[in-house]
Fold:
Amino acid sequence: MMTPNLHYLELQDSYLFFHIAKKTAAYLEAHPDRRLYRLGIGDVTQPLCPAVIEALHAAVDDQAAQATFHGYMPECGAPFLREAIAAHYAGRGVTLDADEVFVSSGASDELGDLLDLFGPGKTVLIPEPAYPAYVDANVMAGNKIVHLTTGRQSGFLPSPPWEKQADVVYLCSPNNPTGAVLSRAQLQQWVHYANETGAVILFDAAYEAFIAEDGVPHSIFEIEGARTCAIEVCSLSKTAGFTGTRCGYTVIPHELKRGGAQLHSMWVRNRTTKTNGISYILQRGAAAVFTPEGQRQIHETLAVYKQNAAVLMAALDAAGLWYTGGRNAPYLWVACPDGLDSWAFFDRLLHEIQVVGTPGAGFGACGEGYLRFTTFGDPADTAEAARRIETLLRH
Structure:
C-alpha cells in the first residue's frame, strides 16, 4: 500500500489568518454599521505602475501576431529579463552573470522549492519570529528545524549561534514580521558562520526596496564571501505591486558548491525538469520594472507606503509604544501595552477602534506580546487607523 508523505501530519494548523478572518467576520456581523481599518494582511493596495501596464499590453499584442508570438519560454528565465536584473545589481556594485539569475513565480514558491537542492533530513536554522511558510515547508520536507529565538533586547536581530550546526539557514532582511534590518557587519558575521560551518544561507530579500538608510545592504552579495555560501530570493510583489501578477527571481552564484556539487547547475536541472518557465507576458511586465522609467514610477508608489509608515510611527511614538521596523521596512512590530498578550491586544483594537493587526504569536513563540502592522494600506485608511491608535493608547 502506498504511504503518503506523513510529514504533512506534523504540520500545526495554520490558524493565524483564518482566526483573524473569523474574529473580524463575527465582529462585522454583530456591528454591520462599523468599518474596519485593516493593517494586518501584507498585501499591496496601489496599482501596477504605468510602465509595467504598457509592457504587459504590448506583450499581449505580441502574442496576437505570428511574427512576435512566443510559446514556451526558457525554463530559467528569458534572457532579456535575466540581463535586466543583472544590470540592476551592477548599479549597486554587485556583479552577477545573467545566467546566475533564475526567474520565478515569486519568493514564496522558491523558498520552499529550493529545499530540493538539499534533500530530506537536513538541519535547518530559522530565526524567529519568522514567516510561517519557512517552518511549514521544512516540516513537509522532513527536515529538523532549529528555532533561533530573538527578542527586544537585540532588536529582534539574530546572531550566528556558533554552538549550533545547521545545513541551511533562513535569513530575511528587512524582516517579516519584525521589520528589523541586519547591518553590514551583522550580515558579514552570518556569511562567516556559513562559510566556516558549511551551511547555505537562503536570504529572503523580498523587502529590500524599502531600505532607506545608506550603508544597509540590499543584497547579501554586497558582503564579501557570500558567493560561496548564499542563495538570494527576491520578489516583485511588494517592490512593484506584483502580488496578483506573480514574478520574482533567485540568484545562485556559480561558486556555491557543497559536497563537490555545484548548486547552480543542480538548480538549472531542477527548473528544466520541474517547470515550463514563467509566461512571456509576465516577464515583459517584470522587465519594465528595471527600466529607468519603471524605477522612477515604482519608487513613487513605494513612497506612498513609506509615508504610511511615517504616519503610523508618529502615532506609536505619541502613544509611547515600543516598536521596530517602519524606517527600512513595510512592517512595524509593536510591543503590546499594559501586559496584554498578542490576541488580547488584537481584540482590544478590533472592538474599541476597529483596527485590525496581526498577533505576533502567530509568527513563533517569541512573537507573543507583540502585534504586526503593515504599511501597505490605503493612505486615508492608514491615517485614520493611526489617529485611532494614538487616541486610544496615548497616556
